[in-house]
Specification:
EC 1.3.5.4, 18% strand, binds flavin-adenine dinucleotide, 3-stranded antiparallel β-sheet, SdhA/FrdA/AprA, 2 domains, FAD/NAD(P)-binding domain, 333 residues, Succ_DH/fumarate_Rdtase_cat_sf
């Protein structure tokens, strides 16, 4: 937004990208629909950058906003941009379960809740008793039972898989049976409600507003939901897709950083892509950085510079030391 304020970037909001314009095998612009007037508009450019998010909404319900709907990536794919690792989807274990037919998305609850909340289901199948009426001996704290070393803090994929498994076995709770309890009773007793509310007060409030149930009085109900996609449009180390001139950043690409998503930050990838990687192939990198790189590593820099002058991949002058052959598979469009 700083660049917008400085007059260097113009935002055209309320536009949906309909197509990538390809001229002589290179991306040279986009066609968008103006969502206010309904008219099609065209924008030409030397290169195109897609930053249009992941494909979580290819699944029926996800934690993504509805406008993050993978339409742009799909249209680019149809124009020749390869897609990679599409099966690599993260399922988040701590979402508020589906609660109606007219729902467009699922609400994510912070995983920090698993620090103090205990996950359980009734041992018996089809047990519709109130949670307070189910004695300890008839509860299955399945994560603590199966993974005593980690308990409720198992990684996201393990927590998600196990929740689905117990629900598939008929031990799920709530109206749909597609939910497990996340219970704070013990933590509230141990630490007192003041301390627990200090840590999670806003989350408890949010949960209560959505479900009309107070987590201080009865356990939360949670269920896994599609949350983040690590696959996406294939890119090389300069973030260029297999369609020349089309660059892809953030969750929309198949990303190295996102592959580590279970332990790292997706937002970090967006920042790294935008600040450090994307400017390089476009030759926007400042002379100061070039000087630093030259001082640190004169030879590879010169080699890289010669290579980039010859090639069509822009004018990257900083040697990264990375192999130009990307990790991960490439699917042809
Ligand atoms: C509920 C939730 C919580 C999260 N929490 C965390 C967290 O704590 N830490 C973390 O690291 N990550 C978190 N993530 C993941 C992280 O927010 C995303 O990975 C990141 O925001 C992706 O950024 P992006 O810019 O690549 O895409 P997005 O932020 O998804 O932006 C894509 C944009 O492109 C627009 N768009 C899509 N298609 C078109 C089209 N055809 N034409 C025009 N525009 C289009 C969309 O409307 C949207 O504005 C969370 C995600 C969600 C959904």
């Amino acid at each position: 937004m700083r660049q917008v304020a400085a007059g260097k970037v113009t935002i055209y909001s309320r536009r949906e990208m309909m197509d990538v314009v390809v001229v002589d095998g290179k991306a040279r612009g986009i066609i968008v629909r103006n969502l206010l007037t309904g008219e099609l508009e065209r924008y030409s450019a030397n290169a195109v950058v897609l930053a249009t998010g992941g494909y979580g909404n290819a699944f029926y319900l996800s934690t993504n906003a509805m406008a993050s709907n993978v339409t742009a990536a799909w249209r680019a794919h149809k124009r020749g941009a390869g897609f990679a690792n599409p099966c690599f989807v993260q399922i988040h274990p701590t979402c508020i379960p589906v609660h109606g037919d007219y729902q467009s998305k699922l609400t994510l609850m912070s995983e920090s809740l698993r620090n103090d909340g205990r996950v359980w289901v009734p041992k018996k199948t089809d047990d519709h008793r109130n949670p307070a009426d189910i004695p300890e001996a008839e509860r299955d704290y399945y994560l603590e039972r199966k993974y005593p070393g980690f308990g409720n803090l198992v990684p996201r994929d393990v927590a998600s898989r196990n929740a689905k498994e117990v629900c598939d076995q008929g031990q799920g709770v709530g109206e749909t049976g597609q939910a497990v309890y996340l219970d704070f009773a013990e933590a509230l007793k141990r630490d007192g409600s003041e301390s627990i509310l200090k840590k999670y007060g806003n989350l408890f409030q949010m949960y209560e507003r959505i479900t009309a149930s107070d987590p201080v009085k009865e356990p939360m109900m949670i269920y896994p939901a599609v949350h983040y996609t690590m696959g996406g449009l294939w890119v090389d180390y300069q973030l260029q897709s297999s369609l020349d001139g089309l660059f892809v950043i953030g969750e929309a690409n198949f990303s190295d950083h996102g592959a580590n998503r279970l332990g790292a930050s997706a937002l970090m990838q967006g920042l790294a892509d935008g600040y450090f990687i994307l400017p390089a192939p476009w030759g926007i990198i400042s002379q100061k950085l070039v000087r630093i790189a030259r001082r640190l590593s004169p030879r590879p820099l010169l080699r890289q510079r010669r290579r980039s002058r010859r090639g069509s991949r822009g004018s990257c002058v900083i040697a990264t030391g990375k192999s130009p052959v990307p990790a991960g598979g490439l699917l042809s469009p």
